[in-house]
């Protein structure tokens, strides 16, 4: 497997769906890492006078030059006292790239240059009820939503792989005990378990604490199916001659598990890892949408969607559904990538 | 001469579905220092099981029921698993039947050889590399070419050399070679035998060569132990075994070696097959297949006694009672 890495990467690039999904995923992650730079505003910068402002209409051409501009939004009230926005065409506001605005910090780099901005408020994907830029909030929210998948699977697989390998390798009573435990966990509907585990922890926590609690809860739920598969693999691998040979050379059981059992599960793990990231993104979204996850003013895709829970809001301000589109995009891309990886690592496709 | 390994009255049974399969039943064997002992017998007569018992490599449902395995004055069956790990690879090492499957396909040859060193010694990584280099040279492989290759890139003979290098890398005192040449063709077999012979002269170690190929023993082995259905039937120097074998089974085995002069004549074969270990015959285990059997053979298993100096035998034909 290690040897054939280059050919695998070549196959990955040649596989169109895999390549494009990998591209989408990379773009999403780059956007989330450089969130303060990409987004024109802070995630909590609000302008109540512009609540539920629609996405700004951008004009690409000024005369014959490509010079994007937009008009400032003004509003009046209609007979139902709703805000009706219209463009104030008296003055063009040009979009400025690499504009200096709010200072921010990405890791150790301090800067105040943003990818784009303007002298007036620009809402690429509209604004929410407090006049916050949904585009900026989605970009900031991706930091939680996308990283929870990675950190979550790291813990889950760490637990699942070790418990599964130990269970399969040693067998006997221990194996029986662990497998029954797995079955008990798998029998309970996972969302129900998610909610009940969440209720154990205090309701008033900081967002960072909640973030880690979500990760821990998701790992506690999801390790079981992985442990079962890894246990099955360990069960067949431990009968292999090279395991016996390693033992005959004086390796301890732990060394055999680490050096000769777990590496053989990597092809399965890579596929399965990719395919299980979406469940973390969706799980976090579901919790946050129900108000049990990340709390205001911090953002995640799920808690952004919680605003879209009323049909009326969706009817009048459909742009508040945009976070859902990003959830869809990420989940879809991870699923496609996972499926393609499965094809690539499947020995039958050689 | 001093014995490095003494197996006394070893019984290894398999417990399958409440049935007891007696794979090894009262094996007595000793290996002298710096000798090569050939352990010969048909398939299924317990050669491999008894040698795995020595290293305690047996897994469920096999179990060593009784006996002693004394290596350098220590009973291997009585020490802790942790101490056993220190003996495996460093004091006693084993070359497995199928060399190709005894290497992990995921890792390079060099990596696996290094792992074998690291198991028993704490040596710096750069020094380990040097030792691996030397050991590959010893088995006549080009270290520069082979150290970073994966097992599936090597030919059968090359893999066998790597496995031999692996067994020798910690300078063990005893090497158990479990049919090291069965999966190789005749020319490569000859090379491997030559290699083992050369290594034996350079390094001082004892070796147990498990084989069902008597002609292999002819070239390599000091003493030959003939095993049948879990017990030894004859043990003598290879000269005696080839020149004046006594036990009917040994004679039959020797007759089985094909002779180029007897062109297109039917090959000799021993009638019948090794008894099913679940239901061994009463008396001497060989009696249903023995052409010279006496009445007593059906009732009593002959004792294993020394009839001449250094020649042990268990057969009623020669006065064993």
Can you tag this structure with a few keywords?
heterodimer, A: 350 residues, alpha+beta, MetI-like fold, 2 domains, three-stranded antiparallel β-sheet, 5 strands, B: 321 residues, alpha/beta, four-stranded antiparallel β-sheet, globular
Explain the overall architecture.
- Chain A has 350 residues and is an alpha+beta fold.
- Chain A has 2 domains: 2-33 and 138-349, MetI-like (MetI-like fold), CATH 1.10.3720.10; 52-131, no CATH class.
- Helices cover 58% and strands 14% of the residues of chain A.
- Chain A contains 13 helices and 5 strands.
- Chain A has helices at 5-14, 16-33, 35-38, 134-170, 172-187, 190-200, 207-237, 241-248, 253-261, 266-289, 301-305, 311-316, 322-345, and strands at residues 59-62, 65-77, 83-94, 96-106, 109-117.
- In chain A, strand 1 and strand 2 form a beta hairpin.
- In chain A, helix 4 (134-170) runs parallel beside helix 7 (207-237).
- Chain A starts with a helix and ends in a 5-residue tail after the last helix.
- The model of chain A has no long low-confidence stretch (mean pLDDT 85).
- In chain B, 42% of the residues are buried.
- Chain B has 10 helices and 12 strands.
- In chain B, the strands form 2 sheets. An 8-stranded mixed β-sheet of chain B has the order 6-7-8-3-9-10-12-11, sandwiched between helices. A 4-stranded antiparallel β-sheet of chain B has the order 2-1-4-5, covered by helices on one side.
- Chain B starts with a strand and ends in an 8-residue tail after the last strand.
- Chain B is of the alpha/beta class and 321 residues long.
- Chains A and B meet through helix 8 and helix 9 of A and helix 2 and helix 3 of B.
């Amino acid at each position: 497997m290690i040897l054939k890495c280059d050919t695998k990467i070549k196959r990955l690039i040649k596989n169109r769906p895999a390549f494009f999904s990998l591209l989408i995923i990379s773009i999403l992650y780059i956007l989330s890492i450089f969130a303060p730079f990409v987004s024109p505003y802070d995630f909590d910068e609000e302008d109540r006078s512009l609540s539920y402002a629609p996405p700004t209409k951008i004009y690409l051409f000024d005369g014959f030059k490509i010079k994007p501009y937009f008009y400032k939004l003004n509003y009046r009230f209609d007979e139902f006292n709703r805000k009706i926005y219209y463009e104030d065409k008296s003055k063009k506001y040009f979009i400025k790239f690499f504009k200096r605005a709010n200072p921010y910090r990405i890791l150790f780099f301090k800067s105040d240059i943003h990818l784009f901005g303007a002298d007036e408020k620009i809402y690429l994907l509209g604004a929410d009820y407090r006049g916050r830029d949904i585009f900026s909030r989605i970009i900031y929210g991706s930091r939680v939503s996308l990283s929870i998948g990675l950190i979550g699977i790291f813990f889950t697989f760490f637990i699942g792989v070790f418990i599964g390998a130990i269970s399969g390798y040693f067998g006997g009573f221990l194996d029986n005990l662990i497998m029954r435990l797995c079955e008990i966990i798998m029998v309970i509907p996972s969302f129900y378990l998610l909610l009940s585990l969440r209720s154990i922890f205090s309701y008033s926590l900081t967002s960072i604490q909640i973030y880690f609690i979500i990760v821990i809860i998701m790992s506690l739920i999801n390790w079981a199916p992985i442990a079962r598969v890894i246990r099955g693999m360990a069960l067949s691998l431990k009968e292999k001659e090279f395991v016996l040979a390693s033992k005959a050379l004086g390796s301890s059981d732990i060394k055999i598990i680490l050096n000769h059992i777990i590496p053989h599960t990597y092809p399965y793990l890579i596929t399965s890892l990719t395919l299980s990231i979406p469940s973390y993104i969706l799980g976090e979204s579901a919790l946050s949408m129900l108000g049990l996850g990340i709390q205001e003013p911090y953002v995640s895709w799920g808690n952004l969607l919680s605003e879209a829970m009323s049909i009326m809001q969706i009817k009048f301000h459909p742009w508040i559904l945009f976070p859902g589109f990003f959830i869809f995009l990420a989940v879809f891309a991870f699923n496609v990538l996972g499926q393609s990886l499965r094809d690539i690592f499947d020995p039958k496709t050689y | 001469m001093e014995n490095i390994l003494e197996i006394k009255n070893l019984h290894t049974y398999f417990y399958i579905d409440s049935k007891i399969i007696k794979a090894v039943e009262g094996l007595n064997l000793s290996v002298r220092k710096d000798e090569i002992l050939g352990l010969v017998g048909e398939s299924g007569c317990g050669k491999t099981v008894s040698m795995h018992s020595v290293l305690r490599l047996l897994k469920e449902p096999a179990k060593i029921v009784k006996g002693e395995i004394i290596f350098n004055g220590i009973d291997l069956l009585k020490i802790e698993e942790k101490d056993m790990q220190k003996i495996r690879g460093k004091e006693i090492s084993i070359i497995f039947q199928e060399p190709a499957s005894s290497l992990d396909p995921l890792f390079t040859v060099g990596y696996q050889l290094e792992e074998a060193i690291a198991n028993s010694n704490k040596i710096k990584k750069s020094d380990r590399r040097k030792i691996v280099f030397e050991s590959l040279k010893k088995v006549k492989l080009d270290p520069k070419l082979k150290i970073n290759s994966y097992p599936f890139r090597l030919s059968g003979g090359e893999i066998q050399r790597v496995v031999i290098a692996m067994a020798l890398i910690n300078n063990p005192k005893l090497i158990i070679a479990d049919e090291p040449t069965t999966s190789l063709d005749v020319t490569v077999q000859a090379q491997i035998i030559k290699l083992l012979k050369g290594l034996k002269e350079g390094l001082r170690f004892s070796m147990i060569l498990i084989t069902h190929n008597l002609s292999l023993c002819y070239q390599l082995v000091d003493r030959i132990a003939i095993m049948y259905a879990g017990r030894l039937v004859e043990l003598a120097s290879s000269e005696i075994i080839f020149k004046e074998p006594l036990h009917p089974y040994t004679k039959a085995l020797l007759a089985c070696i094909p002779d180029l002069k007897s062109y297109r004549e039917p090959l000799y074969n021993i009638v019948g097959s090794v008894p099913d270990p679940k239901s061994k015959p009463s008396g001497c285990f060989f009696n249903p297949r023995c052409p010279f059997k006496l009445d007593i053979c059906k009732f009593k298993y002959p004792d294993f006694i020394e009839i001449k100096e250094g020649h042990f035998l268990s057969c009623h034909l020669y006065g064993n009672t």
